[in-house]
Amino acid sequence: SRINIKSTLLASTLIISMTCGVSFAGTGTDNSNFSQLDADESGSISTEEAKAMPALEQYFTQVDADGDGQVSENEYLDAIGSGSQSEAPGS
């Protein structure tokens, strides 16, 4: 379910933040985690880059909302609950 995906990705984001020394103080934390995952700085996370976060790799197709084979920053933020899009009713 969408809640399980969100919880798993949030936990993985926390682990990445703690491992990489990123602080949760401030608003750039989620964007910083996205930037760390976007190793080639293309503006999106590929399936190869997603391997750095097992939860993202596991739920890649669900997070890749537009199905283009890349997770954009907006898709990533929406998946962890920090994006601007609202959740679909009944999710």
What does this molecule look like?
The chain has 91 residues and is mainly alpha-helical. Helices cover 53% and strands 4% of the residues. The chain has 6 helices and 2 strands; from the N terminus they run ααβαααβα. The chain has helices at residues 2-20, 29-37, 47-50, 54-58, 60-63, 73-79, and strands spanning 44-45, 71-72. A two-stranded antiparallel sheet has the order 1-2. The model is unreliable at 17-28 and 85-91 (pLDDT under 50).
Q: What gross morphology would you assign?
A: globular
Q: List the helices and strands in order.
A: HHEHHHEH
Low-confidence segments: 17-28, 85-91
Query: For the terminal residues, how far apart are their CA atoms?
Result: 7 Å
Number of helices: 6
Strand order of the largest sheet: 1-2
Q: Let me know the number of strands.
A: 2
User: Mind summarizing the main beta sheet?
Assistant: 2 strands, antiparallel
Radius of gyration, taken over Cα atoms and rounded to an integer in Å: 12 Å
Average pLDDT works out at 74
